[in-house]
C-alpha cells in the first residue's frame, strides 16, 4: 500500500511540475524537481531536437558546400556538450544505400528552451557517387542523457543532387571531341557549340543510302534544329583559342556502351572512360576498321591524324575525344569502359 501511495504522490507531483512548465513558471517547476530526490531523473533531462536542415540543391564532387541546421533543447535542464554529425543519405534512385559522413562538429552545452543555429562548410568527398541525396543531421550525445531519442535527427526537406565534373581539352582550330559525362542540365548541339564558342557543330549520321555522312549545323542559322548529344559519338567543333571546358553531370548509363555503326564513316567516343592500355590498334581490332583517325593540334589549327596498323605510332585513346572509323557493313559494338 505504501508503495502505491508513493507512486501516486510522485505522479501528482510530476503533473504539477508540467503545469508549472506550461504556465511558463519554469523556475517553480525546476525548483520542484530539485526538492524531490525520489523523482525519476527522466523529468530533469534535456531534450535535444534537430530542426531546419538547409542544404544547396546541387553540388559537384570535391566542392565545398554550406549546410545550416538548428538544434533546440526542449527539456528542463541544459544539455551536455555533444556533436552534430552531418551525412549524405541516398535517395531510392541512387545506387548506394549507405549514409556518407561529411563532418562531425563539436557543439557546446545548450540551455533549456534555447536554440542554436549553425552553418557548417563541408567538402563533398571524391568517393561520393553522382546521384540524389538528402542531408541528414544527427546528434551524438557522447554518452549524455536525453529525454526523447527519437528527435535527435533531422533531414533536409529538399534534394541535394551531387554531380561529377569532367574537363574537355580544346586546342585552337578544329577539334573532334566527345562528352565524357552526361551533362546536367542536358545540353544539345546548339548549347555545346555555344559553350565552345564554335560557329558550327558537325557529326556523322546515317544517310538515305545507309552509309555514314557528315552533317553540319551552323550555330544561329534560321531553321537549324538542335540535336541531342550522345556519349558514344564524337563531334567536330571549332575553338577560337586553346581552352578547357568544364562539364558537370552524371556518368552516362551503361547502355551508352552499345553503339551502332553504319557502313562507311562514323565518329565514336568512349562514354564511360577508356581502359588504360586501350590504343588505336585496339580500336581497329574492335571495329574492323582499316585505320583510326583523330584530330590533333598543329600549331594554330587542328588537323587529321590517322593510325595505320604497323605503319604509324599507336597512341593511347582518351575520354572526351572522338575517333573516326570506317566499316564495310553495319554493325553494333560494345565499347569498353575505363577505370
Keywords:
single chain, mainly beta, Immunoglobulin-like, six-stranded mixed beta sheet, elongated
Find the structural class using helix and strand composition: mainly beta
Order of helices and strands: HHEEEEEEEEEEEHEEEEEEHEEEE
- Radius of gyration (CA) equals 31 Å
Count, helices:
4
Cα end-to-end separation: 75 Å
Describe this structure in words.
- This protein is mostly beta strands.
- The protein folds into two domains: 48-158, Immunoglobulins (Immunoglobulin-like); 164-334, no CATH class.
- The protein is built from four helices and 21 strands.
- It has helices at residues 2-22, 26-35, 189-196, 280-287; strands spanning 48-54, 58-60, 64-73, 82-90, 100-107, 115-123, 131-140, 153-155, 160-170, 173-177, 182-183, 200-206, 211-218, 235-239, 243-250, 258-261, 263-268, 292-298, 301-307, 323-327, 331-334.
- The strands form five sheets. Strands 2, 4, 5, 7, 8, 9, 11 and 15 form an eight-stranded mixed β-sheet that branches. Strands 10-14-12-13-17-20 form a six-stranded mixed β-sheet, covered by helices on one side.
- β18 and β19 form a beta hairpin.
- α1 packs antiparallel against α2 (26-35).
- The longest helix is centred in the N-terminal third of the chain and has 21 residues, at 2-22.
- The relative contact order is 0.13.
What is the secondary structure topology, with strand pairs?
Elements: H1 2-22, H2 26-35, E1 48-54, E2 58-60, E3 64-73, E4 82-90, E5 100-107, E6 115-123, E7 131-140, E8 153-155, E9 160-170, E10 173-177, E11 182-183, H3 189-196, E12 200-206, E13 211-218, E14 235-239, E15 243-250, E16 258-261, E17 263-268, H4 280-287, E18 292-298, E19 301-307, E20 323-327, E21 331-334
Parallel strand pairs: 2-9, 13-17
Antiparallel strand pairs: 1-3, 3-6, 4-5, 4-7, 7-8, 7-9, 9-15, 10-14, 11-15, 12-13, 12-14, 16-21, 17-20, 18-19
Helix pairs in contact: 1-2
Amino acid at each position: 500500500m505504501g508503495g502505491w501511495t508513493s507512486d501516486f504522490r510522485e505522479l501528482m507531483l510530476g503533473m504539477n511540475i508540467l503545469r508549472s512548465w506550461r504556465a511558463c513558471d519554469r523556475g517553480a517547476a525546476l525548483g520542484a524537481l530539485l526538492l524531490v530526490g525520489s523523482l525519476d531523473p527522466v523529468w530533469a533531462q534535456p531534450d535535444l531536437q534537430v530542426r531546419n536542415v538547409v542544404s544547396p540543391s546541387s553540388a559537384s564532387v570535391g566542392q565545398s558546400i554550406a549546410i545550416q541546421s538548428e538544434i533546440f533543447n526542449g527539456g528542463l535542464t541544459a544539455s551536455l556538450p555533444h556533436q552534430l554529425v552531418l551525412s549524405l543519405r541516398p535517395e531510392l534512385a541512387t545506387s548506394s544505400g549507405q549514409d556518407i559522413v561529411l563532418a562531425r562538429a563539436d557543439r557546446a552545452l545548450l540551455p533549456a528552451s534555447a536554440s542554436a543555429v549553425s552553418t557548417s562548410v563541408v567538402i563533398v568527398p571524391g568517393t561520393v557517387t553522382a546521384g540524389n541525396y538528402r542531408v541528414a543531421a544527427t546528434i551524438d550525445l557522447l554518452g549524455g542523457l536525453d529525454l526523447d531519442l527519437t528527435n535527435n535527427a533531422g533531414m533536409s526537406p529538399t534534394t541535394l543532387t551531387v554531380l561529377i565534373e569532367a574537363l574537355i581539352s580544346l586546342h585552337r582550330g578544329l577539334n573532334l571531341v566527345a562528352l565524357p559525362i552526361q551533362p546536367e542540365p542536358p545540353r544539345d548541339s546548339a548549347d555545346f557549340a555555344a559553350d565552345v564558342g564554335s560557329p558550327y557543330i558537325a557529326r556523322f549520321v546515317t544517310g538515305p543510302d545507309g552509309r555514314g555522312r557528315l552533317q553540319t549545323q551552323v550555330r544561329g542559322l534560321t531553321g537549324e534544329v538542335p540535336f541531342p548529344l550522345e556519349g558514344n559519338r564524337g563531334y567536330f567543333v571549332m575553338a577560337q583559342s586553346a581552352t578547357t571546358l568544364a562539364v558537370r553531370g552524371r556518368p552516362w548509363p551503361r547502355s551508352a556502351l552499345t553503339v551502332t555503326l553504319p557502313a562507311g564513316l562514323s565518329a565514336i567516343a568512349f562514354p564511360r572512360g577508356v581502359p588504360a592500355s586501350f590504343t588505336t590498334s585496339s580500336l581497329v581490332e574492335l571495329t574492323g576498321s582499316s585505320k583510326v583517325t583523330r584530330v590533333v593540334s598543329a600549331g594554330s589549327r587542328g588537323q587529321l591524324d590517322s593510325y595505320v596498323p604497323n605503319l604509324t605510332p599507336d597512341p593511347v585513346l582518351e575520354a572526351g575525344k572522338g575517333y573516326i572509323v570506317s566499316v564495310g557493313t553495319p554493325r553494333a559494338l560494345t565499347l569498353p569502359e575505363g577505370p
